[in-house]
Design brief:
Helix content: 55-70%
Number of helices: 6
Strand order of the largest sheet: 1-2
Structural class: mainly alpha
Number of domains: 1
Number of strands: 2
Order of helices and strands: HHEEHHHH
């Protein structure tokens, strides 16, 4: 039994299509890939240090905003890939639903990146007014991975913004994938 590689399915999707349609598919795939990379990097962020003989782990799971970042990026990646399977005419209800889902996912991405960025800034700089000390000098590996995940998250937000602009300005092209 022969199974097709995803690249073959993508090639069939864009074969004979207009360049604008190809741009829509490429933007969607790039956004999905960047979101998946951001989620994986953040989900694998951890470091354990020893303070006064006690092991103290730093994991993304210990901070709700970082958990939201992972869940949001994973959901965006999965939904963005699923949308590629929805063939729809530009004026159809499915095309409008895809656009609404894209807008909602864009908002989730913005919220996830903002909340993770805020907590990472707190980890790096602390808050002297609240008496919170910075921790990144103690767990640099963890903080570097969080920073890498945030960069991938920002790339995802930019790609999703471009995808939304493309979908809104050229609905007959980007919605009929």
């Amino acid at each position: 039994m022969h199974t097709q590689l995803p690249i073959n399915q993508i090639t069939k999707m864009v074969k004979g299509k207009s360049p604008r349609r190809i741009v829509a598919v490429v933007l969607r795939l790039a956004a999905a890939a960047a979101a998946a990379v951001a989620a994986v990097i953040m989900a694998t962020s951890h470091q354990t240090i020893v303070i006064f003989g006690v092991e103290v782990p730093a994991k993304f799971r210990y901070t709700p905003s970082l958990v939201f970042f992972v869940a949001g990026n994973a959901a965006v990646s999965a939904c963005t890939m699923l949308v590629l399977l929805v063939p729809a005419a530009a004026a159809s209800l499915a095309a409008r639903l895809v656009l609404m889902v894209d807008v909602a996912l864009g908002m989730v991405l913005a919220g996830a990146v903002a909340s993770a960025g805020a907590i990472s800034d707190l980890g790096k700089n602390g808050n002297s007014h609240a008496g919170w000390m910075p921790i990144c000098h103690r767990v640099p590996v963890f903080c570097d991975r969080v920073k890498a995940a945030l960069i991938a998250g920002f790339v995802t937000v930019v790609l999703y913004f471009l995808l939304l602009i493309h979908s809104i300005l050229l609905p007959s092209v980007s919605m009929n994938i």
